[in-house]
């Protein structure tokens, strides 16, 4: 298992503390963010690159360009700025999330957005990690649709899928696409009372034995099908962020997952 750590696991830690924790966990791959915490908006890319090199970690991605499938307004400028930042800080990819407010976005608009984003990524040597969101209000819920759109945009060499175990479960998807998958996000839901259609980011905790999202079967299926990339922890629940010892909690979840495989 190749584990990575997303800064959302411990958003109260500084970048340097987060990188040090990742190494202490025996991991060397990280994801930084432009929301919680907003690394992109508060640190220069040169600072981020220097900190990553000093800690010996690789920056897999920046989360996230949103809503990538509505190519209008300030999105093109934000996309270029984020791609510039990613290239300058040494990140390998940008996570790209679709509109998630109940508004429908046509397949043609999705394809047009991927076509427009492709030269921005290609010029900087970046991968676009396209992440379907499984929420009922999402404008792109399924990975199969994302793959169809990537093909229609001629983006096979530029784009990969983000397989998120939470969104895979919410979308009711059963098919796995290991050859298309560039990164996997893992998180669990343990609240026994929330129904699947009502699950939100706030419900996402670290994976343990009470998980309702079938993380372990999903991980097993991906590995058996040939996926050999990283699995990155992405819990959004405030109860995780508030832990006094996030490192210990992550170590426990890593141990549980390894033992379960």
TrEMBL record:
It comes from the Bacteria. Gene3D superfamilies: Divalent-metal-dependent TIM barrel enzymes. Keywords: Isomerase. GO terms for molecular function: isomerase activity. InterPro entries: IolE/XylAMocC-like (IPR050312), UCP036778_sugar_epimerase (IPR014621), Xyl_isomerase-like_sf (IPR036237), Xyl_isomerase-like_TIM-brl (IPR013022). Residues 20-259 form the Xylose isomerase-like TIM barrel domain. Transmembrane segments: none annotated. The keyword Membrane does not apply. Pfam families: AP_endonuc_2. This is 2-keto-myo-inositol isomerase. It comes from Donghicola tyrosinivorans.
């Amino acid at each position: 298992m190749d584990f990575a750590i997303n800064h959302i696991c411990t958003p109260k830690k500084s970048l340097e503390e987060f990188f040090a924790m990742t190494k202490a966990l025996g991991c060397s791959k990280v994801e930084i963010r432009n929301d919680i915490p907003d690394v992109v908006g508060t640190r220069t890319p040169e600072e981020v690159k220097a900190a990553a090199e000093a800690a010996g970690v690789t920056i897999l991605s920046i989360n996230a360009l949103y809503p990538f499938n509505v190519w209008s307004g300030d999105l093109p400028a934000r996309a270029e700025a984020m791609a510039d930042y990613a290239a300058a800080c040494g990140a390998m990819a940008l996570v790209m999330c679709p509109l998630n407010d109940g508004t429908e976005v046509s397949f043609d608009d999705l394809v047009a957005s991927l076509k427009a984003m492709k030269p921005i990524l290609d010029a900087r040597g970046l991968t676009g990690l396209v992440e379907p969101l499984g929420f009922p209000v999402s404008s792109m819920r399924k990975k199969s649709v994302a793959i169809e759109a990537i093909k229609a945009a001629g983006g096979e060499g530029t784009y990969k899928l983000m397989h998120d175990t939470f969104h895979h479960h919410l979308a009711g998807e059963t098919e796995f696409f290991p050859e298309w998958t560039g990164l996997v996000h893992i998180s669990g839901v343990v609240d026994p009372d929330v129904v699947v259609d009502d699950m939100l980011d706030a419900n996402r905790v670290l994976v343990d034995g009470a998980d309702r999202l079938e993380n372990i079967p999903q991980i097993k299926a991906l590995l058996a099908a040939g996926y050999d990339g990283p699995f990155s922890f992405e819990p959004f629940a405030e109860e995780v962020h508030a832990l006094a010892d996030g490192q210990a909690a992550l170590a426990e979840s890593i141990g549980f997952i390894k033992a379960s495989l």
